[in-house]
Each structure stands twice: as structure tokens, then as C-alpha cells.
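B., you asked whether I could sanity-check this one before it goes into the benchmark set. Here's the sequence:
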Amino acid sequence: MEVLLKADLPLPLFIRGKVRDTYKLGDHLLIVATDRISVFDVVLPDGIPDKGLVLNQLSAYWFNETRGLVTNHVIEVVEDVGCLDAYLPEKDRFPYPAYLAGRSMVVRKVKLIPVECVVRGYLAGSGWVEYQKSGSVCGISLPEGLRESEELLEPIFTPTTKAEPPEHDEPMSMDDVKDQLGEALAEKLKDSCISIYSFARERARDRGIIIADTKFEFGLDNGELILIDELLTPDSSRFWPANQYQVGWSQPSYDKQPVRDWTEATGWDKSPPAPMLTQEVIESTTQRYREAYERLTGRKLKEY
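And here's what the prediction gave me:
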């Protein structure tokens, strides 16, 4: 399987993120999901085959399923690269690489809201670490005696800053978000996040997957709140197999947590450069990502 580590298009580059390469496409943006993988905000030297296909197609699935809850930025998922002609004047068209099919989408250009919107339904990861120290997560007090991976009484909104590498995201309280965005927008952001998470959690549970937590990003378009970036993917969420769930310790997962665990076990200090992955880690990660897609959507991953 070929791996795409970097898109190379004759279009103005809008931003190259840890995983996605985004280009200006006339009045819109073209987001290309590569096969890069990052942990602890560091991009690893190895790509994960099929990862970009999974991220793009799973995001497209969830954007479609949740469009009745909140407006999102998707204009068109690129199934046939010829569709891009509609967004470019004839003089600017070029031979579109085949890899764009299935791993890219045309989206609205909006003003980014600089908050990482995290929703937690279970106590895991950094939330569990913080709870052990303070009994709270992002300033939200939780009942005493909770155990690792335990389901919370209700989902909680635990936003963070949106830092540029090498800086790391820092927890924000709801008051912090209100100070930054204003009370009305902050409350709408929180309500939208809880609504999307609650919907997706029930849908996933029916498919045998627990969504323990997830991260959303939003923008504004003429004052309208727009859901952007990726949605409910193994990169942005913790996916646990429901039939193996047991409270009290870390869970097996369909996401990239095993990659984080493997890199930590090497003794890596979480600063660039990151270690090379073993073939076993690469292949098992591809398998997990594909299985997450197929279980959540009920479809086979479309090959191009």
C-alpha cells in the first residue's frame, strides 16, 4: 500500500498541519488528509497506510449524519478528481493527482475559533490524570471515588487552548472561554459539542464502539457557528471496543493510543525527532483505523 506523507499541489498553500495539507481553492479550501501520524504534537517519520482515506471518509460520514445538529463546512467530498474543475478558472486547472480521490474534500473558508472543544463521557487520558490530583477536570468537580475509564454521569465540556507547536494545548475553564468569545457564543459552542457527542455516542454504541471522548473545532462564517476540520475520527477521539470494556484501567482502543504507548515505551522524550515505528505497529494501526471506520459506518472502506 502506498503512503502519502505530503500533498504537493500547484495551489496556494493555506496551512500544512500535523496531518492535513490545506490549499486555497478559489473562494474555498481543499483539505487533503495525508497518512502522517502525530503523537504528543510531534509528527512521526512513518506514515500509516490508508489512514488519510479513513480520516477523510469517516469525517465525511459524521458530517453528513450530524448536519441536522449544527452547520458544517463541507461543500463536496472529492470522489472524482474532475469535480475540482468547478472551483478553478480554466487557466488555473492542472492534472489532479489520483490520490486526491477519497482523501480530500472541498470546504467553506471560515474564521477559526481558537479553542479546542473537547467533550468527555468517560474518565481517561489527561482527564484521569488531573482527576487523581484534584478531583476535577478543567475546573469541573467530579464525584469522589471514580475509577479510570469510568463513565461520567453526563458528558462534560473540557476545552483547551489551541497552541502552535512546539507549545502544548492548555486546559481552559468555561469562564476562560466566555472571556475569550463572549458568553452567548461560548454557551452555544458548549451546547453544540455536547449535542454532537451525545448523538454520536449513542450511534456508535449500537455499532459496538464506545466513544470515550472527542475533540471538535469550529469557525464562524458571518456570525454563523460552523463545525470544521475533522469529525469523530480515530485521530480526534478515543474509540473503545464495547465488548472488552472494563472499568478500572486503560482500555484497548481503535485509535492512536497504542502508538502513543509504544513511543513512550521506547524512552522517547516527546521532542523531535520521533522514533521510527516498527512494521508491526504500522500494520496494526492501519488495521485498527480501518476497523473503526467499518464498524462505525457499516461500510467497507472505499478504495481508489
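One thing to flag: DSSP finds six helices and 16 strands in the chain. Otherwise nothing jumped out at me.
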